[in-house]
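Pasting as-is:
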Amino acid sequence: MNEDRRRTDKVAQLVQAEVSKLLLERVKDPRVEGVTVTEVRVSSDLSFARVYFAVAPDRAEKAAEGLERAAPFLRRELGSRLRLRRVPELRFERDEALEHGTKINAILKQMARGEES
């Protein structure tokens, strides 16, 4: 793994940990309650961070609005906590992998019951 990749992975881990902590402790917007940061991917030039989050499907739209509203605050806090030369712009995206996995499990269970009959 090259040095640039290690650096972006390290920054991604730090951003994920700090955003998660900030959402729990400092962001008071009720729309982001129950949001879990599942992954962060940082661009190679560290200018953008795509923050993937999971939340109950019925709350996804409101959570996304709350996260976008909190983004400037989160970025300022990251700047002071992480002391990076360039703090990435945060872009939030819903992580649908968990929901997708749940649907696949339900289909597999349904198929298994059908085969047992």
